[in-house]
Amino acid sequence: MKKVVLLAAVTILFSSLLLAQADEEKNYRIPLIGEKAPSFEAQTTNGTLNFPVDFGNKWKILFAHPQDFTPVCSSELLELAYLQDEFDKLNVKLAVVSTGNLETHREWKSALEGVQYKGRLTTKIKFPLIDDDSRFISREYGMIHPAINGTKSVRGVFIIGPDNIIRAISFYPLNVGRSSEEILRSVKALQTANDVNMTPSDWKPGDDLIVAVPPVTDQRAENVPDGYYKLAWFMWFEKSRAKN
């Protein structure tokens, strides 16, 4: 009986070592635009989360932090909390991942909900803060790599479509705060752009759209159909319906 128990223990230990080695050898990389968002199950301040499937056919934003209670990250969470209703209007679910543990997440969330940032009233944080103490999620999303020590590079933003395909990615260093307004604008642009119309630089809702396929066969022609204009033969625009 003792030999059987010992053999089982050795087998489990050997399997664990093999799994650990395989994990170390895995080529973690940032998932690219057009790829499926890596899925995971984790504990959060809102309970267990199976990401991204628990959010159904909504848009999703995974917003990553290297550590709890860091001042720049704290300011970003307060801005996201301030804009929660705006994201809701766009059918967007927010999820924040940080390499701290769940108890620290709860303490951080509680502290932030007592802060009057920019003179505003305090705000409840409705979105989940995800426990990534194991760094599993950060690795799956390619945010931990040999070039940077520790978790300083866990600063990614992944905008994911209703089909769970990654639609946009951005990264900022630890000492530069991310713009929640730009993330909001990016979602609006992604929800507006399609195979026919594209958004130009600094586009905002109500602005004119770039035309992917001009409404004429000869793009150099002088005649321009109503509702369109061009700045050059290769830059055609469709006038915003909001301006008509």
Structure description:
The protein has 244 residues and is of the alpha+beta class. A hairpin with a 2-residue loop joins strand 10 and strand 11. It is built from six helices and eleven strands. It has helices spanning 2-25, 71-82, 84-89, 102-112, 136-140, 180-192; strands at 40-44, 47-51, 59-65, 92-98, 129-131, 156-160, 166-171, 197-198, 209-211, 228-232, 235-238. Mean pLDDT is 89; it is low at 8-25. It folds into two domains: 27-178, Glutaredoxin (3-Layer(aba) Sandwich), CATH 3.40.30.10; 197-243, no CATH class. The chain is 29% helix and 21% strand.
Concise structural overview:
The chain has 244 residues and is of the alpha+beta class. It is built from six helices and eleven strands. Helix 4 links the parallel strand 4 and strand 5.
Largest sheet: 5 strands, mixed
Number of domains in the coordinates? Answer: 2
Strand order of the largest sheet: 5-4-3-6-7
End-to-end Cα distance: 85 Å
What CATH calls the topology of the largest domain is Glutaredoxin
CATH architecture of the largest domain: 3-Layer(aba) Sandwich
Helix content: 25-40%
The ordered string of helix (H) and strand (E) elements is HEEEHHEHEHEEHEEEE
Under CATH at level 1, the class of the largest domain stands as: Alpha Beta
Q: Strand share of the residues?
A: 15-25%
